[in-house]
């Protein structure tokens, strides 16, 4: 659950250190004199802080890491967290400091004595890392306690904090959506939630099955035809500028059983995250609206559920995509590319976008190739790919460029139709991307992000606890700011 995205900004008053309850965070560097907040905490604890900072353990910390004194005598607080930080920290050290704060955060309030340190990198990392998903507990609590920060110059912080809140809320929304189980977040409840985002100033349209049939999105509909949840296409439009929009297209498979080409049972529960591409799209659109980005961006998500059933599509079926291409369905588990084929085509037909970016938990093969630390980046446009890789590096989200090549088209030729949806194991992530490219108009800059490995992780990261990561929301926001926004 995303909560407490409105941290309190306090003036820098050292007396609060003695009386504040919960956890207090101060910064220190063994090589320099103690900064004022640490000095005050040291005085109140009768030298306990200075002894900790002079210890072997503290010397072993890298910048941004911390030790915590529990129930420090002389303070009302139950914990005093001391973060090692050089006097002139770089952005990475500041982010790491925020991560240390966020990881330690529980339900107690936390006061961060930032003094003159920049508030944005520290607080953003703390809020992102502190996230906890509580919605499925019988007694859901706020995921983490409130943060407040003490600043020397509090007025100056308020402007940057609005954008920070929007960014954190966008990432938290994406995680909430990915973490939500498939019986809770269905095509219908997801579409209803999206419809509610009209309040943020987004233009929202939801196409139902009749409208999709009418428009010819047979490939998308074929994936959902074995499910009792009706398939949908949702459009979220943030028109913060004139001109052709950037289109973001997300795979929203609410649950992927594989369909008639049923997946093995072990681990199948993970396929509740198969709407990760749609979740990033929706989180990003909320973010852009929240910070009133001066950009024209349209988000399009295809919402379906892939179930085996008497009405489900079969291996061997041939379907006509919206573009007119005939697709032979070799494997009903290669369903994401069917959804995207139509959602991508619809995006281009309807909006004539200046660029198209799709996100999808598309292949297990990208996990084999890159693991869980980096998403696969496929693009027909080097400038777009380079700009994205730069943006991802800037925000600390892993991404790696993968090849596209007409040579791979051989593998997806169909004997009886125009193209087939599966080429088996060799180069599985690339043949999937190559398939998608058949639904991109020549001349349209396009990038495909295969996020199967990064959307949900079994281990914690600097940004997030275990579970949904929200990968991509921040990188795409940074890309929009760098390349698609009027200044
Ligand atoms: N949703 C899966 C891909 C996936 C796998 C996402 C693991 C997250 C974790 C996708 O629909 C799928 O089933 N892909 C198949 C394609 C194959 C049948 C060509 C795959 O990767 O095995
Ligand atoms: Mn599948
Ligand atoms: Zn899938």
Query: Tally of extended strands?
Result: 19
Q: Please estimate the helix content.
A: 25-40%
Mean pLDDT: 96
Helix-strand category: alpha/beta
CATH homologous superfamily of the largest domain - what is it? Zn peptidases
Major β-sheet, in short? 8 strands, mixed
Distance between the termini: 33 Å
Low-confidence sequence ranges: 1-5
Adjacency order of strands in the biggest sheet: 7-8-10-9-13-17-14-15
Bound compounds, each kind once, are: ligand BES, manganese (II) ion, zinc ion
What is the total number of structural domains?
2
Number of H/I helices: 16
Known CATH architecture of the largest domain? 3-Layer(aba) Sandwich
Evaluate the radius of gyration. Answer: 24 Å
Strand content: 15-25%
The CATH topology of the largest domain is Aminopeptidase
**CATH class designation of the largest domain:** Alpha Beta
Features:
Aminopeptidase, binds zinc ion, eight-stranded mixed sheet, binds manganese (II) ion, binds ligand BES, six-stranded mixed sheet, 487 residues, 19 strands, 2 domains, disordered N terminus
Describe this structure in words.
With 487 residues, the protein is of the alpha/beta class. It has two domains: 8-153, Leucine Aminopeptidase, subunit E, domain 1 (3-Layer(aba) Sandwich); 172-484, Zn peptidases (Aminopeptidase, 3-Layer(aba) Sandwich), CATH 3.40.630. It has helices spanning 16-19, 36-44, 48-53, 56-60, 91-104, 119-130, 154-179, 187-195, 209-215, 218-224, 276-290, 336-351, 365-370, 382-395, 428-437, 473-484; strands spanning 8-11, 23-28, 66-70, 79-84, 110-115, 147-151, 203-207, 232-239, 246-256, 296-306, 318-320, 326-328, 355-360, 375-379, 399-401, 419-420, 446-450, 456-457, 467-468. Strands 7-8-10-9-13-17-14-15 form an eight-stranded mixed β-sheet, with helices on both faces. α11 links the parallel β9 (246-256) and β10. It is elongated and about 80 Å long. The chain starts with 7 loop residues before the first strand and ends with a helix. Residues 1-5 have low confidence and may be disordered. The structure holds ligand BES, manganese (II) ion and zinc ion. Ligand BES binds next to loops.
């Amino acid at each position: 659950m995303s909560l407490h995205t409105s941290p309190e900004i306090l003036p820098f008053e050292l007396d609060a250190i003695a009386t504040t309850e919960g956890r207090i965070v101060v910064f220190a560097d063994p090589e320099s004199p103690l900064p004022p907040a640490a000095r005050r905490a040291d005085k109140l604890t009768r030298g306990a802080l200075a002894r900790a900072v002079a210890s072997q353990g503290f010397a072993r910390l890298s910048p941004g890491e911390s030790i915590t004194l529990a129930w420090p005598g002389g303070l009302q607080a139950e914990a005093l967290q001391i973060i090692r930080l050089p006097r002139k920290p770089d952005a990475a050290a500041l982010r790491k400091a925020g991560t240390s704060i966020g990881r330690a955060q529980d339900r107690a309030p936390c006061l961060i004595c930032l003094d003159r340190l920049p508030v944005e990198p520290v607080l953003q990392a703390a809020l992102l890392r502190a996230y906890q998903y509580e919605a499925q507990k019988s007694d859901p609590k706020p995921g983490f306690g409130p943060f407040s920060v003490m600043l020397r110059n509090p007025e100056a912080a308020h402007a940057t904090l609005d954008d920070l809140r929007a960014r954190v809320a966008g990432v938290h929304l994406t995680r909430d959506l990915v973490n939500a189980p498939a019986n809770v977040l269905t095509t219908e409840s997801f579409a209803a939630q999206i419809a509610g985002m009209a309040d943020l100033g987004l233009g929202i349209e939801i196409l139902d099955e009749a409208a999709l049939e009418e428009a010819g999105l047979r490939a998308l509909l074929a994936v959902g035809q074995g499910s009792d949840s009706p398939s949908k296409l949702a459009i979220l439009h943030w028109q913060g500028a004139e001109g052709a929009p950037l289109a973001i297209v997300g795979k929203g498979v609410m649950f992927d059983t594989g369909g008639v080409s049923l997946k093995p049972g072990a681990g199948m529960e993970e396929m509740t995250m198969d709407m990760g591409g749609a979740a990033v799209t929706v989180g990003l659109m909320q973010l852009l609206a929240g910070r009133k980005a001066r950009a024209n961006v349209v988000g399009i998500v295809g919402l379906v559920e892939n179930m085996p059933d008497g009405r489900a599509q079969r291996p061997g079926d041939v379907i006509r995509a919206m573009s007119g291409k005939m697709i032979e369905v070799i494997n009903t588990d290669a369903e994401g590319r069917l959804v995207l084929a139509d959602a991508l085509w619809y995006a281009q037909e309807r909006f004539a976008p200046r660029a198209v970016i799709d996100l999808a938990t598309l292949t297990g093969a990208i996990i084999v190739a890159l693991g869980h630390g980096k998403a696969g980046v496929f693009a027909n446009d080097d400038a777009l790919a380079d700009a994205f890789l730069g943006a991802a590096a800037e925000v600390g989200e892993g991404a790696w460029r993968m090849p596209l090549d007409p040579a791979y088209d051989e593998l997806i030729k169909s004997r009886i139709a125009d193209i087939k949806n599966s080429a088996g194991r060799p180069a599985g992530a690339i043949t999937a991307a190559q398939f998608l490219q058949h639904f991109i108009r020549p001349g349209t800059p396009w990038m495909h992000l295969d996020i199967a490995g990064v959307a949900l992780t079994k281990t914690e990261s600097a940004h997030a606890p275990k579970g949904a990561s929200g990968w991509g929301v921040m990188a795409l926001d940074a890309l929009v700011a760098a390349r698609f926004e009027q200044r």
